UniProtKB/TrEMBL annotation:
Pfam families: Ribosomal_S2 (PF00318). This is Small ribosomal subunit protein uS2c. It comes from Firmiana major. The lineage of its organism: Eukaryota, Viridiplantae, Streptophyta, Embryophyta, Tracheophyta. PANTHER family: 30S RIBOSOMAL PROTEIN S2 PROKARYOTIC AND ORGANELLAR (PTHR12534), SMALL RIBOSOMAL SUBUNIT PROTEIN US2M (PTHR12534:SF0). It is found in: Plastid, Chloroplast. InterPro entries: Ribosomal_uS2, Ribosomal_uS2_bac/mit/plastid, Ribosomal_uS2_CS, Ribosomal_uS2_flav_dom_sf. Keywords: Chloroplast, Plastid, Ribonucleoprotein, Ribosomal protein. Belongs to the universal ribosomal protein uS2 family.
Amino acid sequence: MARRYWNINLEEMLEAGVHFGHGTRKWNPRMAPYISAKRKGIHITNLTRTARFLSEACDLVFDAASKGKQFLIVGTKNKAADSVARAAIGARCHYVNKKWLGGMLTNWPTTETRLHKFRDLRTEQKTGRLNRLPKRDAAMLKRQLSRLQTYLGGIKYMKGLPDIVIIVDQQEEYTALRECITLGIPTICLIDTNCDPDLADISIPANDDAIASIRLILNKLLVAICEGRSSYIRNP
């Protein structure tokens, strides 16, 4: 896989607060190699290492996208939810941004059944069939559709297991990460100073609480995905 230049700028990362970690009392000792200093009781992430691993992640997703691979982005905490949805939609990736339903990947047949139900209900709503049902039945199905939209709306077009999963917050999305590990699905994970850097295939040390930090990291990855997809379209 040839290395490419992804315009990863240290000053840009500083402005986005990528370097701010958690308090020094809330840290994982395994993160020591990724921490450059302590400042006012907060660990400071080494942005040179962040840039290195972000560049490696961009290379990986570019290469995968250029081969037509599919991506899933997971980020369900409130601060990340909107950024995850916007970024994923812009890059035509699948996403989960509300709640990770246990077994979403490891029990894929059940998820697939739910997706079929979701698509059927959407079709019935679009054709007006739901409105022709008795009010009580229609209300029940509309509630079911709303719930499915909330939790499965970002993966409604997913036909099988993703090839790569990008995880915004390791602590918050630990169940999703474990499912990927169980299935052998490669993962890219933002890791703050309280995380375990050894769990994901590529761990990017970064502030996973600041919206600006999350957006910057996601945008770099999704630019690489879009460029890879363009390469795939040009050279099918």
